[in-house]
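// run 5 | inverse folding | seed 20
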């Protein structure tokens, strides 16, 4: 890295902000889909709230309206198969869960049977945030599915996932 290249320095420094790796799932009006997400963070204790940043041009973000229930599947370290599966993205009419063991019937989207933990949330707000939208979800319930450690991601470049 050249000392005279401030953009590379900024990209490298910004990339050191760690994040988890999650699969957000939703079921709405016959559509059932999911997406890989990394920009998720708890933002309140009372009530328990999380924020999720989703790139505005993602087809799935149209389903994330106020009052909509979603499921946050927290991945365990080493679950790279889920990164490969959900990392490619799905259109709304594509089968997102083919070949995966899931549990249906909750208020949000499907639960991945091999997830570390799951949070059921209701979207309570949405804000424009640059090229992403920031969604606030109230955590309605949650449970631990395994005793492992959550997957953490550190990027090489803060301007790319």
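// decoded
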């Amino acid at each position: 890295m050249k000392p005279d290249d401030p953009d590379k320095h900024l990209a490298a420094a910004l990339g050191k902000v760690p994040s988890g790796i999650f699969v957000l799932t939703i079921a709405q009006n016959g559509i059932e889909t999911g997406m890989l997400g990394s920009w998720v963070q708890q933002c309140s204790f009372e009530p328990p709230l999380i924020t999720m940043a989703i790139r505005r041009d993602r087809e799935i973000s149209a389903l994330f309206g106020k009052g909509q229930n979603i499921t946050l599947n927290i991945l365990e370290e080493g679950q790279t198969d889920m990164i490969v599966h959900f990392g490619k993205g799905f259109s709304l009419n594509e089968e997102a869960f083919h070949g995966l063991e899931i549990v249906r019937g909750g208020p949000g989207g499907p639960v991945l049977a091999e997830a570390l933990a799951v949070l059921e949330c209701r979207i309570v707000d949405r804000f424009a945030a640059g090229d992403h939208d920031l969604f606030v979800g109230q955590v309605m319930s949650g449970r631990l599915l395994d005793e492992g450690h959550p997957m953490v991601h550190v990027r090489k470049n803060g301007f790319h996932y």
